[in-house]
From TrEMBL:
Gene3D superfamilies the record matches: MetI-like
Gene source species: Demequina capsici
Subcellular location: Cell membrane
Entry similarity comment: Belongs to the binding-protein-dependent transport system permease family.
Protein name (Swiss-Prot/TrEMBL): Sugar ABC transporter permease
Region (Disordered): 1-27
Length: 324
């Protein structure tokens, strides 16, 4: 008598063996995905609590009229987009906007070039001199803005300034009594120099930190292939540091677009007027100086849109770097 062959399980299990019981799906990956959002939630709530009211109040003010009647206690009236129309139809606003964008671009690029050069120098020089340079950069970066501007005012003073005295030592050059803050071009050149001097330490130290992470094997391989210093910098080091450099450049552009304190203090040292304004001082003059708080709020909203546009590129680069 023959024994019947075992029947295969329709689910595909081996003959004579029971299929294992289904295990419950693990919740660990889902928790891992939710955890970063939970950790970041307190910071987001704090930012919303600190910014929601003033930002909403500023947006609401940009749609209302503030004039002479409001200075005597009358409530501001809602006028819709009239403040924006008034502002965008003013040629003076566009002049200040273009001037601010050019100032931002020039200052940010110069800051990046000088910062990268100093970072490369720190990587090349011996330990004791590198530490001295890093300490000097930290001291310059930590100096308060008012102290910075006081020192620079002593340097460029038209009567007793060190800069005019040193330049006058050159044969055929007489700069004694020259005021660097009278002409708008020299005014903004001095402002760009001051802001660059204050921003270079951050860029230099950040790029130097990135240079320390460049693999020595990659550098040695490039040297064996005959790459010189310029070629190695252009084709090896800078491409490796590109994520860091892009983020630093975007941060510098955002900061230089919103600069206010240095320009305002320089105006206090020298000439004043619309020819010496950037967006920060222009908005302050509209609101506090002339009492047009509605138009000033509209201008502040436009600057915020520009800043958010630049910040979006910054956030996108951060996301790309995180994915890589």
């Amino acid at each position: 008598m023959t024994t019947p062959a075992p029947v295969a399980d329709p689910a595909g299990a081996a003959p004579g063996l029971e299929a294992p019981a289904p295990q419950p799906a693990s919740r660990r990956p889902r928790r891992a995905k939710v955890l970063p959002y939970l950790l970041g939630l307190p910071a987001v709530l704090v930012l919303l609590a600190g910014m929601a009211y003033p930002l909403s109040w500023q947006v609401w003010n940009s749609f209302r009229e503030y004039g002479l009647a409001q200075q005597f206690g009358q409530d501001p009236t809602f006028i819709g987009l009239q403040n924006y129309i008034t502002l965008l139809s003013d040629s003076g606003f566009w002049t200040v906007l273009v001037r601010s964008v050019v100032f931002m671009a020039v200052t940010a690029v110069v800051t990046m070039v000088v910062g990268i050069a100093l970072a490369i120098l720190m990587k090349s020089i011996p330990g004791w001199s590198r530490i001295a340079l890093q300490v000097a950069l930290l001291l310059a970066w930590a100096m308060p803005i008012v102290a910075q501007m006081t020192v620079w005012n002593w340097l460029i003073d038209d009567r007793n300034g060190v800069l005019n005295y040193v330049l006058s030592l050159i044969p055929g050059v007489d700069m004694v009594g020259h005021n660097w803050l009278v002409e708008p071009l020299s005014f903004f050149a001095v402002a760009s120099l001051i802001i660059t001097w204050a921003s270079v330490p951050f860029v230099a130290l950040s790029v130097y930190a990135g240079l320390t992470q460049v693999s020595e094997e990659v550098v040695e391989a490039a040297q064996l292939d005959g790459a010189g210093g310029i070629q190695m910098l252009r084709r090896i080091i800078l491409p490796i540091l590109r994520p860091v450099l892009v983020i630093l450049l975007l941060l510098q552009m955002i900061w230089d677009l919103r600069v206010y304190a240095q320009i305002s203090l320089l105006q206090g040292f020298g000439a004043r007027g619309e020819r010496y304004d950037l967006l920060g001082t222009y908005i302050y003059g509209l609101g506090v100086g002339q009492g047009h708080f509605g138009v000033a709020a509209a201008a502040a909203m436009i600057v915020m849109i520009f800043t958010i546009a630049l910040s979006w590129f910054y956030v996108r680069e951060l996301l790309k770097e995180d994915q890589q």
